[in-house]
Amino acid sequence: MSLPFARLTALLLLTCAPLAVHAEEVIVFAAASMTTAMVDIEQGFETDTGHDLIVSLAGSSALARQIQQGAPADVFISANPDWMDVLENDGLLSKGSRFDLLNNSIVLIAHGQDSTLVAISDLPEALGEDRLAMALVDAVPAGIYGKAALETLGLWDQLSPSVAQTDNVRAALSLVALGETPFGIVYATDAAAEDDVHIVATFPSETHPPIVYPAAAIAEHDDEATQAFLDYLHGAPARAAFERQGFVVVPQ
């Protein structure tokens, strides 16, 4: 009786061994605005594939510069096409791997849930001597989009001296959530993730460039595990995770 059991045990070990041998680590650099969704995606991808997913979240500009400097990223997901274009022009993307993943919108938020609604056109008066939280307006996509919208609406010159700039959009969200600033401009998906803010208004899409999140593999990092992650982003579980956070998934 013991011999067949021993053979069965050995067979099971041999059957399971390839999964451990082929499990790899995939390092993803993703825009900070994807924080909530990436928690679910990390768990789902690891469960489905056996690979380890390491997610580094920050402003797209900071992540792109780190990749330029040789940071060991396998995949980059940017909150705008411009920073992806920079890496592509530098020859740092795996050819043919780039695709548009998500769309988003930007909103004006206020601290708390009981604040009076304010029209965007009345923001300078409502702000008074206080500060407006925004991600870096010349580097981080959320800040770039917000500045463009305010310029289109003729409000930037009035508001720019009052802007409190942060390294990424989640930091701007935190300033408003903590009551450090009464108003902020963030993505709609960020506002949905924070109970201590509410959306005052949504900026019309025609006031700023289209908000597109492209994804791509980094050059010489397009191995099987990396491709498995890119494939996972196209699947139903990832779509559900993104939609739960309020993103619009770009049809493939």
UniProtKB/TrEMBL annotation:
UniProt entry keywords in alphabetical sequence: Metal-binding, Molybdenum, Signal
Record bears the keyword Isomerase: no
Secretion signal, residue range per the UniProt entry: 1-23
One GO cellular component term noted in the UniProt record for this chain: outer membrane-bounded periplasmic space
Any Pfam family the entry gives: SBP_bac_11
Single GO term (MF): metal ion binding
Record Gene3D superfamilies: Periplasmic binding protein-like II
Residue sites binding molybdate per the record: S33, S60, A142, V169, Y187
GO biological process: molybdate ion transport
Lineage: superkingdom: Bacteria
Quaternary organization: The complex is composed of two ATP-binding proteins (ModC), two transmembrane proteins (ModB) and a solute-binding protein (ModA).
Family statement drawn from the similarity comment of this UniProt entry: Belongs to the bacterial solute-binding protein ModA family.
Protein name listed in UniProt: Molybdate transport system substrate-binding protein
Naturally occurring in which organism (per UniProt): Celeribacter baekdonensis
